Amino acid sequence: VQVVESGGGLVQPGGSLRLSCAASGFTFSRFAMRWYRQAPGKERGLVASISSVGSRTNYADSMKGRLTFSRDNAKNMGYLQMNSLKSEDTAVYYCNAHLDGLYDYWGQGTQVTVSS
User: Fold this and answer.
1) Fewest beta carbons less than 10 Å away: which of 1, 27, 30, 102?
2) Whole-angstrom Cα distance, residue 45 to residue 60?
3) Which residues contact 43 (CB under 8 A, 6 or more apart)?
4) Which helix (H) or strand (E) holds 50?
Protein backbone atom coordinates (compact mmCIF):
# COMPACT_ATOMS: atom_id res chain seq x y z
CA VAL A 1 0.00 0.00 0.00
CA GLN A 2 1.30 3.43 -0.93
CA VAL A 3 -0.01 6.95 -0.75
CA VAL A 4 2.38 9.53 -2.17
CA GLU A 5 1.87 13.28 -2.23
CA SER A 6 3.55 15.67 -4.63
CA GLY A 7 3.21 19.21 -5.91
CA GLY A 8 4.21 21.17 -2.85
CA GLY A 9 6.73 23.97 -2.97
CA LEU A 10 7.35 27.65 -2.44
CA VAL A 11 4.75 30.06 -3.75
CA GLN A 12 4.13 33.76 -3.28
CA PRO A 13 1.04 35.03 -1.46
CA GLY A 14 -1.88 35.02 -3.86
CA GLY A 15 -0.39 32.22 -5.88
CA SER A 16 -1.65 28.73 -6.64
CA LEU A 17 -0.50 25.16 -6.26
CA ARG A 18 -1.96 21.82 -7.22
CA LEU A 19 -1.17 18.95 -4.90
CA SER A 20 -1.40 15.40 -6.18
CA CYS A 21 -1.94 12.17 -4.30
CA ALA A 22 -1.01 8.89 -5.98
CA ALA A 23 -2.42 5.71 -4.49
CA SER A 24 -1.50 2.09 -5.08
CA GLY A 25 -1.91 -1.30 -3.51
CA PHE A 26 -5.60 -1.04 -2.64
CA THR A 27 -8.95 -0.55 -4.34
CA PHE A 28 -8.75 3.20 -4.57
CA SER A 29 -12.28 3.70 -5.90
CA ARG A 30 -13.78 2.33 -2.66
CA PHE A 31 -11.94 4.76 -0.43
CA ALA A 32 -12.88 8.27 0.56
CA MET A 33 -10.01 10.74 0.64
CA ARG A 34 -8.97 13.64 2.80
CA TRP A 35 -6.26 16.25 2.85
CA TYR A 36 -4.89 17.38 6.19
CA ARG A 37 -2.27 19.95 7.02
CA GLN A 38 0.05 20.57 9.93
CA ALA A 39 1.86 23.83 10.54
CA PRO A 40 4.85 24.05 12.90
CA GLY A 41 3.72 23.89 16.51
CA LYS A 42 0.11 23.16 15.58
CA GLU A 43 -2.01 20.05 15.45
CA ARG A 44 -2.86 18.33 12.20
CA GLY A 45 -6.17 19.57 10.87
CA LEU A 46 -8.60 18.51 8.16
CA VAL A 47 -8.53 20.67 5.06
CA ALA A 48 -10.76 18.90 2.56
CA SER A 49 -12.53 15.63 1.92
CA ILE A 50 -14.04 13.85 -1.07
CA SER A 51 -16.28 10.80 -1.35
CA SER A 52 -15.17 7.60 -3.01
CA VAL A 53 -16.78 8.47 -6.35
CA GLY A 54 -16.05 12.18 -6.11
CA SER A 55 -19.66 13.29 -5.86
CA ARG A 56 -19.33 15.03 -2.50
CA THR A 57 -16.66 17.40 -1.26
CA ASN A 58 -16.22 19.36 1.93
CA TYR A 59 -13.73 22.06 2.83
CA ALA A 60 -12.44 23.68 5.99
CA ASP A 61 -13.97 27.10 6.57
CA SER A 62 -10.52 28.69 6.57
CA MET A 63 -9.93 27.59 3.00
CA LYS A 64 -13.45 27.43 1.57
CA GLY A 65 -13.69 29.10 -1.81
CA ARG A 66 -9.98 28.67 -2.43
CA LEU A 67 -9.83 24.88 -2.79
CA THR A 68 -11.03 22.32 -5.29
CA PHE A 69 -10.64 18.65 -4.43
CA SER A 70 -11.02 16.20 -7.31
CA ARG A 71 -10.10 12.62 -8.07
CA ASP A 72 -9.57 10.33 -11.03
CA ASN A 73 -10.37 6.78 -9.99
CA ALA A 74 -9.17 5.40 -13.31
CA LYS A 75 -5.69 6.73 -12.52
CA ASN A 76 -5.80 6.20 -8.73
CA MET A 77 -5.12 9.88 -8.24
CA GLY A 78 -6.46 12.70 -6.11
CA TYR A 79 -5.84 16.40 -6.67
CA LEU A 80 -6.12 19.47 -4.46
CA GLN A 81 -6.12 22.76 -6.33
CA MET A 82 -5.25 25.62 -3.97
CA ASN A 83 -5.70 29.23 -5.04
CA SER A 84 -5.18 32.64 -3.44
CA LEU A 85 -2.70 31.15 -1.01
CA LYS A 86 -1.85 33.01 2.17
CA SER A 87 1.14 32.84 4.48
CA GLU A 88 -1.00 31.08 7.06
CA ASP A 89 -1.50 28.22 4.61
CA THR A 90 2.14 27.27 5.08
CA ALA A 91 2.19 23.70 6.36
CA VAL A 92 2.93 20.12 5.52
CA TYR A 93 -0.03 18.72 3.61
CA TYR A 94 -0.95 15.06 4.02
CA CYS A 95 -3.13 12.85 1.87
CA ASN A 96 -5.31 10.24 3.54
CA ALA A 97 -7.39 7.41 2.12
CA HIS A 98 -9.87 5.69 4.40
CA LEU A 99 -12.63 3.11 4.25
CA ASP A 100 -15.42 2.67 6.81
CA GLY A 101 -13.08 3.17 9.72
CA LEU A 102 -11.36 -0.11 8.90
CA TYR A 103 -8.54 1.04 6.67
CA ASP A 104 -6.64 4.28 7.01
CA TYR A 105 -3.66 5.04 4.77
CA TRP A 106 -1.42 8.08 4.98
CA GLY A 107 1.23 9.63 2.82
CA GLN A 108 4.45 11.19 4.06
CA GLY A 109 3.35 14.73 3.33
CA THR A 110 4.41 17.53 1.03
CA GLN A 111 5.63 20.92 2.20
CA VAL A 112 3.75 24.03 1.09
CA THR A 113 5.42 27.33 1.87
CA VAL A 114 3.69 30.61 1.08
CA SER A 115 6.12 33.48 1.31
CA SER A 116 7.33 36.48 -0.61
Assistant:
1) 102
2) 9
3) none
4) strand 45-50
